[in-house]
């Protein structure tokens, strides 16, 4: 068997699994293979697929979708539908394209949600007797979705929209949400199946879906399902097929796909010839996480990225279907959606905004926002930000700004108060939200609103605010955790179940030895990350913070302010006392790293990393620190101190000399920097304990601030 080492199970389970590394999973795999043969037939009898059309003709030309020739009446929405003609996997792909109105075909077609992939590698299909070049991933989808004996009617953006007609593209994108809502179902095409992986992944999902249904049924009867003790759970434990082969697909990371599945009446997840109902898939993954088939945290600290994108879909569905909390404006709703989708990628940078408009609770035109492919990405981003600020009277969108500084990759012409939505890496979570992702209840400027003026051709944001404090000291930055270094090769852990006892023991020894001495890359990624927290603690103690509000602190005031700053004001469900107890429990787990730093062991050395990691594993052996779940807003930030002695959580770009200000319309203190031209640059948000709920705000002190 193979002992898999992935980012979803490198934790205390890495060691405890050694004792069960030889449990027989072959029966589960064989069951999956039997299921595959029932679906596809014996391998020896399968004929190769046709990968390209053999017959081609003249290039297909679109008839304009908008105009009198379409026959569309006023108030109707014209669209094209693709009729996929029947055939076998050995036939050319032949289709018919028809122009209709959405209102006339509700529930009479399926919409396809997929990733375009490499559009430079194109292949022909036949449409209405002519040839259209499409991407290879789309051709593969059509090959697998085609029926043998009947037509299949689909809406596919790359084919049903004339992508070369900007006017048509803008109008179709504006109504795309309705196109997906009107479909009978949305087909999520993940891509071709992978030999040996996909069959196991789908079998795992179906097994978990069955367990989930059984658990729900038994819970209604007042009984409990001991699935964790069942042999099925032993087969599934530490599964890698689902997170890697299904959740690891590009589809989960694309901007458009979120809208496409969330607006669907029904979803079907398809990978090659395998398919499963979307709802069953979500139930299965949620149940697997609940059973800890996959671990929800890496070392109790880091959320495996495959599951981040899965959970984001559920959050977006909540924002779109259930709506935002009472009092949230339409502009606020759009800010929330943009923040939730910012890590999703798009080929066209403008689509990072346009792809979420269909998820709004109301028509985006109320915000004066329409898809515009004639303007540059910088102009689109600036225009949308200005509209959001003007329509809401709030500066919430500033929290999504990315601190580019002088980076040459920065989008040229973008003011500092406008977010650049292009980057998809982990960035600091806006302080607009608490650690659970809900909007913060406090307001640093007493629920004030701003009356913005956009000067200098729209590049300068003119608002009002006043000084809070100046930054006099900063700590190191807590960077994004890079888990790329911790992917050890699976073949490092190959153990033949037919090995003799002596060879088995030797291989086990090599495995353990590799864990202790050969995992320097892993330690190199994790231990310095944890060491930043120890440095921050020293920073807080040395500062002796004087923050205004610390009502329940007893004894160690510096540490009380420190842990509340780490949490950015969020508390565990049990309130202050529970959160403080969780902090001190977590504080103990850093003891080994704290000791090594005290002994002045070189932090770059392998000794520091290895001993620190082993000590940390030992200290967390009995369970993960619940306090970690409150630290999500620390990533990509640094601690800071002010001239008045305030401890604060700052954006990573903050420097000594920057100014903390309270600005009308902002519920968070802002970090600003004076420019040589008399204007001010926006650097980011700051958490300043004791100044988050309006106690430090004085409207009479406000003056004009010009942010560029």
Report what the structure shows.
Pfam families: HET (PF06985), Het-6_barrel (PF26639). This is Heterokaryon incompatibility protein 6, OR allele. InterPro entries: HET, HetReg/Transcr_Mod. It is a single chain. The protein is of the alpha+beta class. Among the domains are: 12-44 and 193-311, no CATH class; 68-183, no CATH class; 522-634, no CATH class. 34% of the residues lie in helices and 15% in strands. The protein contains 21 helices and 18 strands. Helix 13 (330-341) packs across helix 15 (377-392).
Task: Please give a quick description of this structure.
Pfam families: HET (PF06985), Het-6_barrel (PF26639). With about 700 residues, the chain is of the alpha+beta class.
Lay out the secondary structure.
Layout: H1 12-16, H2 26-40, E1 78-84, E2 94-101, E3 110-113, E4 122-127, E5 130-135, H3 136-145, E6 152-155, H4 157-160, H5 166-174, H6 176-181, E7 185-191, H7 198-220, H8 231-236, H9 241-246, H10 255-262, E8 267-271, E9 274-277, H11 278-290, H12 305-322, H13 330-341, H14 351-354, H15 377-392, E10 453-455, E11 460-478, H16 501-517, H17 520-543, H18 557-566, H19 576-589, H20 591-598, H21 606-619, E12 637-642, E13 647-651, E14 659-663, E15 670-674, E16 680-685, E17 687-688, E18 703-707
Helix pairs in contact: 2-7, 7-11, 12-13, 13-15, 17-18, 17-21, 20-21
